[in-house]
Write a structure and sequence with these properties.
The chain is an alpha/beta fold. The protein has eight helices and nine strands. It has a domain of 65 residues. 39% of the residues lie in helices and 27% in strands.
Length: 241
């Protein structure tokens, strides 16, 4: 039986609610909080592919930030066994004035990779990204698709034990999307742990072992992929009526 390598126990994450009026912000004694995540409670097994689904604003990206260590919970316990998961999010952490190569090193080092490992993988990262000479230009000159190429290539070629993917598969041309999908499937075959946020029900059904459905920050359901995705699709259809 596969062991649990990620555990979330009654996780709550909040953000301050700011008034648009700066004077009110200064004098108000009532500091309201918006709870982005409310009482999440589930585990992820080694080698599992877990899908995270939910409407926009449901807390999915906040959850991935928590799991990657970028933010801490207000309440509850979060535990990861082994190396911190690598977050693959569109343009996450990119410094716009630095070149593509410089951002590869910066992001990879911040995620705990040694310089030698980056050196050894740099050529493969650049080749996979297909950015050609743009790899030497500032990231501020990149399109959203180019940023996605750089982010995905850096994460996938450094071969993390746990990969967190936030919607980047929907960016870029169809040929590169297929290339990314194939690379993820290869990691899955190598029993890497993958946690995927996407609006593609078809992709979730194809590659995910289980699914967590989040609605307005709350854990609405966790379970077998087809069952949970079908429930979510019915819920979304009812909302559109």
């Amino acid at each position: 039986m596969k062991k649990d390598i990620i555990e979330l126990n009654n996780i709550w994450v909040s953000y301050p609610e700011h008034s648009d009026n700066p004077i009110k912000q200064l004098i108000s004694k009532d500091k309201k909080q918006f709870w982005a995540l409310k009482g999440l409670d589930f585990t992820v097994k080694k080698g599992e592919v877990l899908g995270i689904i939910g409407r926009n604003g449901s807390g999915k990206s906040t959850l991935l930030k928590l799991m990657s260590g970028l933010i801490e919970p207000d309440k509850g316990d979060y535990h990861v066994e082994g190396k911190r998961p690598m977050l693959l999010s569109l343009g996450a952490g990119f410094q716009p004035e630095l070149s593509g190569i410089e951002n590869i090193y910066l992001n990879a080092l911040l995620l705990g990779n040694r310089k030698k490992k980056i050196d050894d993988n740099l050529e493969s990262i650049i080749e996979f990204s297909e950015l050609d000479d743009f790899i030497y230009k500032p990231v501020r000159t990149y399109s959203s698709g180019m940023k996605a190429r750089l982010a995905f290539s850096t994460a996938i070629m450094l071969d993390p034990e746990i990969l967190l993917i936030d919607e980047v598969l929907g960016v870029g041309d169809s040929a590169f999307q297929k290339k990314c999908k194939d690379a993820i499937l290869e990691k899955i075959q190598q029993e890497r742990t993958v946690i995927l946020v996407t609006h593609s029900s078809g992709l979730v059904k194809q590659i995910c072992d289980r699914v967590v459905w989040i609605h307005r920050g709350e854990q609405k359901a966790v379970g077998e992929t087809k069952e949970i995705v079908d429930q979510y699709d019915e819920f979304m259809k009812a909302k559109r009526k």
